[in-house]
Amino acid sequence: MTTATEARNNIIARQQQTLGHSNEELTSLVEKDRVHRDVYLDPEIFDLEMERIWGQAWVFVGHDSQVKKPGDFITTTIGKEPVVMVRDKKGEVNVVYNRCGHKGAKVVGKPCGNAQMFRCPYHGWTFQLDGTLNATPHKCGYEDTAFDPADPQFSMQKVARVENYRGFVFANLSEQGDDFETFMGAALETIDNMADRSPQGEVEVVGACLPYFHDCNWKMFFENLNDAQHPMVCHGSVGVATKKTVRELPEGTPVPKEVEIISPFGSSYELFDDMGVTVMENGHSFMGGKHSIHSSYSEIPGYMEAMIESHGQEKTERVLGSNRHNTAIYPSFTIKDAVQIIRVVRPVSVDKTLIQTWHFRLKGAPEQMLHRTITYSRLINSPASMVGPDDWDCYARMQESLRSNSAEWVDMRRYIGREESADGLTRAKGTSDLSMRNQYKAWTNYMTQTSEQEA
Length: 455
Ligand SMILES: [Fe+2]
Description:
By secondary structure, the chain is of the alpha+beta class. The chain is built from 16 helices and 22 strands.
């Protein structure tokens, strides 16, 4: 019997023999304060990343509120692997490879839906909601062939590990490596914080995702998440325009809610330095903590009362007193707990990346909280917004001009050597390049791991 994990290990072992990047060559691409441009440009390195990073890290798949009823499913990818997340008849959420166990066709074509079971459109093999083979048509031809329907090679195979943490479903294609909670470390507190901002302690996805294709390598988006040197330059025009709009409002006109969302993107270097950046194992990081660019939003009537009634004064103050900005969970996921938004990274090719933005309702909170969440995305994350396209343009410029033979290296030295460590976390001023250096430490670890397939 060949399991999906065994098959993947065989493929990776063959790649390591044939692809032209030894561990020494990969290590030489990352120095303590700079990285070589090939990490963004080389398609072969991209393929290795899909196997060695995305094939070994815990990657976000979806939220279980997207599959509320038995038979509900979504399709997506983990690296290059097509997968289906589906709730089965027992209520369990499964993640299975979207590959027919017969001839290998993609079984489920829709992005989401509900099914009693899955049926391959090619030869009609059917699969139960946990991926196991249900039936094959015209069985007579398999008599005396040693065909065993229970052999997992004929199923839509399960991925190696799945974890559902407060509704957030992550999967790991490898049986080896850290368990989920160890992998997440202090980043897990951000997921807790978003869920605890609900008076019921639960969140749910609302609506479809906001897709945004980026003409860049996936790592450029990820590095930008905690890059606090760019807002006042890259988004400077937005800050200026917002201030001008406020100045020109007729006297006595209330300041629009949109202003308190946009204005912080034009804040000073000092404000971002003061927010600070914190990094941890496995490439994760976040900005802020006590305060962030989200902490000065005006109160929404009824929310505080609902929180105190459910959680009590002390817990409410603790939950709402935590203000992280962009917790980045390497390599696939970033969460804004204070505004109930996640963005998910789906690499497409070495120079193309799909970013999916999802919005959450805090169960039991006034609906105005959700309106603010949607407004935030309309202003910041949407391809038609005032902020996201600024970033998009800079990523595309990097992807284009890193091809220039005038130089080979990308610098990441800002505030190097001026970090402070305590309690397993390392902190620095907000405009430090610390989070990027930390991501490349994880990148090197993943990319040069001599994993079980070589043993
Ligand atoms: Fe930005």
